[in-house]
């Protein structure tokens, strides 16, 4: 449906997007995530037709766009949903949604589907942030776009509303069968609403895959750190397991040569911590998180790790503990980093 091949976007002499390629299937939701300034919005703006590519090609259905061949935004059948809602302040909810529609039936469908019926006569400035974003989404979907681009749609909403609305938006997109690129800087949002996710860094796509695959098998240390707490333990590969000072973990189906040295990615929930006077470290700090508790553990080796446990678990700061790998699944393996200055 959408294909992007080797896209480059420039602003004057500065490069915002470098050699980016991706495809989007029918009805697929792709989340695009990355640190501020990595080029996410520039990708969206180029697909929408607000910026001309410096190099590469974009195909939207049968349309082809490149540095010499432009298609104006209104001919691309691309819908846009922004962080600031961009509603018409002088039109009520139903007129916002039905704006420029000859047949109002789709507007009525999305008004009802997104729970806006009781607000149909309300003016935008009397709506909450969540209601405004539902109106913006209903308006975009009522125009039956071939593709929807969402730029940080939940960024201005509070945490509880974000969690609820992201599922409503995902369900609406799936009900409409519209493929979408959803830009966010929120890792949890990107992991939970995308069929696939793309992680960008400095204008490049570092990895694109299903969220579970990106989280479990990050393509780089950058992705590992960006998607959550990440620590790397030195390990040595055996035939079925990798051996570390904190215990063994299965290797999975990774091709490997035995005795190879690796770094093993461990996240706080891959580790357990128990009180033990003859253990391998002590609790430096703990943070109560509601359902869970996060511990900072200082190992006797000097390394610091974070360990997440159930909230009922309680250990005091300074307590002697033993920390072990408890993950039953294969952990991601990386080549050991060479110390700075070594050959
Ligand atoms: N109109 C512009 N003129 C010049 N440089 C720009 C312009 N818009 C963006 N940039 C630069 O291009 C790079 C990519 O910006 P972009 O907005 O695409 O990143 P982003 O990942 O969406 O960031 P954020 O998460 O902060 O919105 C940044 O270095 C930014 O400063």
UniProtKB/TrEMBL annotation:
The keyword Ion transport applies. The keyword Transport applies. CDD domains: ABC_Carb_Solutes_like (cd03259). Keywords: ATP-binding, Cell membrane, Ion transport, Iron, Iron transport, Membrane, Nucleotide-binding, Transport. Residues 2-227 form the ABC transporter domain. It comes from the Bacteria. SMART domains: AAA (SM00382). This is Ferric iron ABC transporter, ATP-binding protein. InterPro entries: AAA+_ATPase (IPR003593), ABC_SmlMolc_Importer (IPR050093), ABC_transporter-like_ATP-bd (IPR003439), ABC_transporter-like_CS (IPR017871), ABC_transpr_FbpC (IPR015853), Mo/tungstate-bd_C_term_dom (IPR008995), P-loop_NTPase (IPR027417), Transp-assoc_OB_typ2 (IPR013611). It comes from Salinisphaera dokdonensis CL-ES53. One of its GO terms (molecular function) is ATP binding.
């Amino acid at each position: 449906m959408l294909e992007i091949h080797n896209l480059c976007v420039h602003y004057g002499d500065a490069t915002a997007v470098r050699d980016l390629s991706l495809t989007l299937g029918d009805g697929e939701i792709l989340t695009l995530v990355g640190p501020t300034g990595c080029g996410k919005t520039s990708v969206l703006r180029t697909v929408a037709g607000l910026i001309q590519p410096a190099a590469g090609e974009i195909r939207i259905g049968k349309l082809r766009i490149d540095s010499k061949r432009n298609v104006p935004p209104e001919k691309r059948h691309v819908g846009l949903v922004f962080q600031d809602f961009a509603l018409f302040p002088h039109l009520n909810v139903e007129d916002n949604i039905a704006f420029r529609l000859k047949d109002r039936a789709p507007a009525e469908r999305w008004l009802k589907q997104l729970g806006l019926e009781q607000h149909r006569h309300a003016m935008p400035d009397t709506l909450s942030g969540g209601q405004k974003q539902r109106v913006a989404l209903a308006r975009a979907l009522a125009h039956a776009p071939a593709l929807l681009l969402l730029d940080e749609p939940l960024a201005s909403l509070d945490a509880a509303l974000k969690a609820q609305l992201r599922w409503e938006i995902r369900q609406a997109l799936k009900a409409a069968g519209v493929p979408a690129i959803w830009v966010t800087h929120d890792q949890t949002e990107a992991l939970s609403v995308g069929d696939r996710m793309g992680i960008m860094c400095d204008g490049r796509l570092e990895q694109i895959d299903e969220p579970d695959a990106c989280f479990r098998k990050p393509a780089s240390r950058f992705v590992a750190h960006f998607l959550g707490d990440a620590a790397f333990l030195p390990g040595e590969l055996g035939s079925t397991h990798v051996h570390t000072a904190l215990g063994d973990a299965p290797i999975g189906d990774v091709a490997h040569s035995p005795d190879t040295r690796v770094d093993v990615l461990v996240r706080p929930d891959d580790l357990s911590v128990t009180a033990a006077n003859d253990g391998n470290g002590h609790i430096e700090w703990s943070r109560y998180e509601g359902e869970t508790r996060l511990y900072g553990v200082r190992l006797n080796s000097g390394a610091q790790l974070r360990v997440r446990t159930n909230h009922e678990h309680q250990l005091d700061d300074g307590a002697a503990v033993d920390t072990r790998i408890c993950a039953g699944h294969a952990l991601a393996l990386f080549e050991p980093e060479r110390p700075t200055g070594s050959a």
